[in-house]
Amino acid sequence: MTQTALAGSPAAPSKPRKPFYRDLAFQVLVGVALGVLVGYLAPSVGHHLQFLGDIFIHLVQMVVALIIFCSVTHGIASVRDLGKVGRIAVRALVYFEVITTFALVIGLVVVNVLRPGEGLHIDPASLHGGGSTTAPAKSEGFDDFLVGLVPTSAVDAFSKGDILQVLVFSVLFACGLASLGERAKPVLDMVGTVQKTLFWIIGKVMRIAPMAAFGSIAFTVSKYGLGTLTSLGKLIGVFYLIVVLFFVLVLWPVSRYAGVNLLKLLRYFRAELVLVLGTSSSESVFPQLTSKLQRLGVDEPVVGLVLPTAYSFNHDGTCLYFASVSVFLAQATGADLGWQAQIGLLLVLLLTSKGGAGVSGSAIAVLALTLSATHQIPVSSVALVLGIHSILSAAFVFTNIAGNCVATLVVGKWENAVDRVRLHRELDTGYDAAA
């Protein structure tokens, strides 16, 4: 009887699949491909298209600090359990330090074994890398780092877009709001409304992401040329191998531990991952990551605290970049960098890799700062990697995004703050923007 009724009942209407050409990831890939063609075939045109990428990045930067403030404030103040907030923060920071250390070790080991810079015999005096890049400010100590966490004013932190300072102010504001109890509800509701408004803005901004990727890639290819971009192919090949090893040796088992299929997770965030390949800026996808992680079933307080913190402290791909490129430049310039010096370099990188949170192009400045701190690798040697930095940054920003998503899920698992049924349903069906 039951079987007959079931057999006779109408099937649930299936939602029509969105045409592939309307998928943002596909559109961004088309933009990248067209950008390469224009940059190569019409470099005089491509050289003037960088403004498309700049406008997109500026539009995102315009709201990203406010989104961090709203996400952190709403997430923490909604909990009203400051002990839980502290526990989440400590667990997240411990996880970040362990994983970034693994990243640095993998980068150092592989670049020492394959030695891509050996035999180049570059004279640092012959290099011309540009003023500010080759002459960084003095190396900051740990005390300077701690002082820099605290803004001189909240307005200054937002105006500079300093994620670390915005994060510190947001946590303090949220804790103060949580201490007020029910009296904080009107402010909390307003913060939630502002957050939804900012996400609407980002949704509209994302529509020009393919144009931004097109302009950025066209400019890169027109300025450096395909020949220049492949002249240091060995370093590129070694670095991409290091990235693959990090995914296989670290992110894959950690994802398994979190109960997540890494390939399905990457598919779910494919639009964001493809976008950062073109823009080389993880800032450009922060709002989308926040929304999607909550949609995967991760509690808002975990997402609101872990993801912004990860943007400053969990630079997995950037650590791979710093470790491999630093040793490559030492090999290329003949600097004597033994294992003891490389252990010291690792310790320096654990600090300097926390700078430049998500800002496009900041890795070059932080790399120069790191080299100056070693007192062995010529800072002017940074000029060697300027031509291929875009290719390398595409891989390490991609890795940063994937690592931050995995980190949020791991901390969510530790806090029992993940709806497992919803998580697996979303990953199995894939992201549907219309849902």
List the helices and strands and how they pair.
Blueprint: H1 2-8, H2 24-41, H3 43-46, H4 50-79, H5 82-114, H6 131-134, H7 142-148, H8 154-160, H9 163-178, H10 185-205, H11 209-230, H12 233-257, H13 262-268, H14 270-279, H15 286-295, H16 300-313, H17 316-333, H18 339-352, H19 362-374, H20 389-414, H21 420-429
In a nutshell, what does this entry contain?
The protein is built from 21 helices and no strands. It has 435 residues and is mainly α.
- Main sheet characteristics: none
| Order of SSEs | HHHHHHHHHHHHHHHHHHHHH
The CATH architecture is Orthogonal Bundle
Highest-level CATH class: Mainly Alpha
| Strands, total number | 0
Structural class: mainly alpha
Count of spatially separate domains? 1
- Overall average residue pLDDT: 76
Q: Helical region count?
A: 21
Give the distance, in angstroms, between the N- and C-terminal Cα atoms: 35 Å
Helix amount: over 70%
Stretches where pLDDT is under 50 for at least 5 consecutive residues are 1-15, 128-140, 355-360
By CATH, the superfamily comes out as Sodium:dicarboxylate symporter
